[in-house]
Specification:
Length: 627
């Protein structure tokens, strides 16, 4: 028989002798089919009868073929010798053909068991495990995953029985990345392996991400080192330098892919460090099939009950009055805003004109709680409260889907759709930002520009007032709004202001604290219309904006009371439970704190002759801007 070194690349039994029993011998033509377990004659047999008698021309058993494949796979994971590669390219199809003819036999079942998940599949450049090969795929991902060469697909039934699959799954791609990370360690990927990793991550994103283990999925960082996804941020704020301690994902990794495979947004990470989630709580919501109705649906129903019109303005003023505010300002802000440095890309839809409502009171902790309650009138147990964030406040959703406000130490933003604010969810569709100690103002300047210079707001220190901003719903955003699929234009706001003008002085008559209501417009058109000689064209606190001072449209006020005493004070004092009243006639204790039960009991037991009465006069003035 032939000696072991007779042909390069051919596997031989260990300790093989130069002679062997005839039943353990095959002719030279079968060397690449059986050399791992049988010996090879040192020449061809000259007698066909002798070859048949000794069984040298009988089909090789599947177990011998399987052993040969196992030996070839172990010896040739990668083939670099051209001659050996050519020999294998001819021999493997012969082995596969013989195994195919044995399909269904007991011998094949034994061979299948021996070769399952073993490197017995020829992929053109070496052998691969059956679980690392698929019949189809967009890219050959050697040395980790392989697509079967086209000339071997004719053996599909046999290879399928051995464990080759139609296509790879997400788990295969996840495993590839982990193996690649183990191979490379902390070494940056070279160009070819970086491309491989990026392609796999893109495929995983198309499959829905990395599954439960996405947070630990290896992703290339900015230098190409594979790093767990949870430790990286994708840079969706390119105008910012990465904060100290923040590792960014590779710039070639698309943001949508990064997010799908578990990498967090840099914007979202920065926002999370400086804010807390704020939930909008549904109260008394209808139930259907065991699920609470959607927040957007509930708001839509509230709008059906609160018609658009000057009554919405009255509600905002009444809320301010219940907070103890003495002055209210309303403004149509037409100032153009940038859309580059925003908290999220979809926030750009809300950088246009806005309705602004200001008052000189500051939110209390209870106010923050009440404004987040949807579906309950929080004033129902307080008979002296005319407004203060009950159901009526939600009428502002006639204007917008994304209301926000600044008061005291906080800036609050609501997104009932949970589609615009980064990190917003249906359960927690709002953010509460402690802005004074936050770097967000510098990180996202375009986002917060609408507050700066507006009625003294600088977001650098606690704001001793409350400033609401309601960006108007555009035609584009109306198309996707589940709250109100109608745009609200600047012209509609101007019309709203005109409708409210004749009732402004009447409104003051029925308020407890507010003594002044001013209505403005700001923006390029308003700035051009404002006259430098008109004293009504500026705000008394001297605040300004990039597009000039707000232009006063009209102002209603109560400049004086008879004898300096509000004639309504006695009644308000009685309703408030004999709280102290200031010299200006303003109750020093909010009447909104009076409970309904106590008030009803007082009315029931009080003789009619003891009910408070008051007679007096007050000055009411209305001032309009010069034409």
């Amino acid at each position: 028989v032939l000696p072991p070194a007779s042909e390069p690349g051919l596997p031989w039994p260990a300790g093989a002798a130069t002679v062997a029993p005839p039943k353990m011998v095959r002719p030279p033509a079968d060397a690449w089919l059986c050399s791992a377990t049988l010996r090879v004659l040192d020449g061809d047999s000259q007698s066909a009868s002798l070859a048949d008698l000794l069984g040298w021309r009988a089909p090789l058993p599947p177990t011998v073929l399987a052993a040969q494949l196992l030996a070839l796979g172990e010896q040739h994971p990668v083939v670099r010798d051209t001659a050996v590669g050519q020999a294998l390219a001819g021999a493997v199809p012969r082995i596969y053909t013989l195994l195919t003819s044995a399909l269904g036999s007991d011998g094949f079942a034994t061979a299948e068991h021996a070769t399952r998940d073993a490197p017995v599949v020829w992929v053109g450049t070496g052998f691969a495990r059956t679980d690392a090969v698929a019949f189809s795929g967009a890219l050959d991902l050697a040395p980790y995953l392989h697509v079967l060469p086209a000339d071997l697909t004719c053996f599909r039934p046999m290879l399928t029985a051995l464990g080759v699959r139609d296509a790879f799954t997400a788990d295969d791609y996840v495993g590839l990345l982990h193996r690649l990370a183990a191979d490379e360690g902390r070494t940056p990927l070279d160009a070819s392996r970086l491309d491989l990793a990026l392609w796999v991550l893109g495929t995983l994103a198309d499959c829905g991400g990395g599954g439960a283990g996405a947070q630990s999925l290896p992703v290339p960082d900015s230098s190409g080192v594979l790093t767990p996804a949870s430790e990286l941020r994708f840079n969706d704020a390119p105008w910012l330098a990465a904060p100290e301690g923040v590792r960014l994902a590779h710039p070639k990794l698309a943001a949508s892919t990064a997010e799908a495979v578990g990498v967090r947004s840099l914007r979202l990470a920065l926002l999370a460090e400086s804010s807390e989630e704020l939930g909008l709580q549904l109260h008394g919501s209808a139930q259907a099939f065991g699920q609470h109705e959607a927040l957007t649906t509930r708001l839509k129903h509230i709008l059906d009950a609160y018609a658009d019109g000057p009554g919405v303005i009255s509600e905002l003023i009444q809320n301010a009055d219940d907070a103890g505010a003495t002055e209210v300002r309303l403004m149509l802000d037409m100032t153009p805003r940038g859309s580059n440095s925003l908290l999220g890309p979809r926030m750009a839809q809300w950088q246009g004109p806005a309705l602004v409502a200001w008052n000189d009171a500051v939110f209390s902790p209870a106010d923050f709680h009440n404004i987040a309650r949807i579906g309950q009138d929080s004033k129902i147990d307080r008979p002296a409260a005319a407004g203060r964030f009950g159901l009526g406040f939600n009428a502002v959703y006639h204007f917008t889907d994304l209301p926000s406000f600044v008061s005291g130490d906080y800036l609050v933003m609501f997104d009932p759709h949970a589609t615009h604010l980064p990190g917003a969810t249906p359960a927690r569709p709002g953010l509460k930002i402690a802005f004074a100690a936050s770097p967000l103002l510098n990180q996202f300047p375009d986002q917060f520009a609408g507050y700066l210079g507006t009625f003294g707001c600088d977001l650098a220190q606690p704001y001793p007032a409350t400033l609401f901003r309601f960006p108007l719903r555009t035609a584009e955003s109306a198309r996707s709004s589940e709250i109100k699929p109608e745009a609200y234009t600047a012209a509609a706001v101007r019309n709203l202001f005109e409708q409210f003008k004749p009732r402004a002085t009447q409104t003051l008559l029925f308020l407890k604290n507010v003594r002044k209501i001013s209505v403005y417009e700001r923006g390029s058109d308003a700035a051009e219309a404002a006259s430098g000689d008109d004293p009504a064209a500026s705000v008394s606190d001297g605040s300004s904006s990039s597009s000039g001072e707000p232009r006063l449209l009209y102002e209603a006020s109560i400049p004086a009371f008879e004898g300096g005493q509000d004639p309504r004070a006695a009644v308000l004092q009685w309703v408030a439970g004999n709280a102290a009243v200031s010299a200006a006639g303003v109750s020093s204790t909010s009447t909104a704190t009076v409970k309904k039960k106590a008030f009803v009991e007082k009315l029931r037991t009080m003789p009619e002759s003891s009910l408070p009465t008051s007679v007096g006069w007050m000055d009411l003035t209305i001032r309009e801007a010069a034409a």
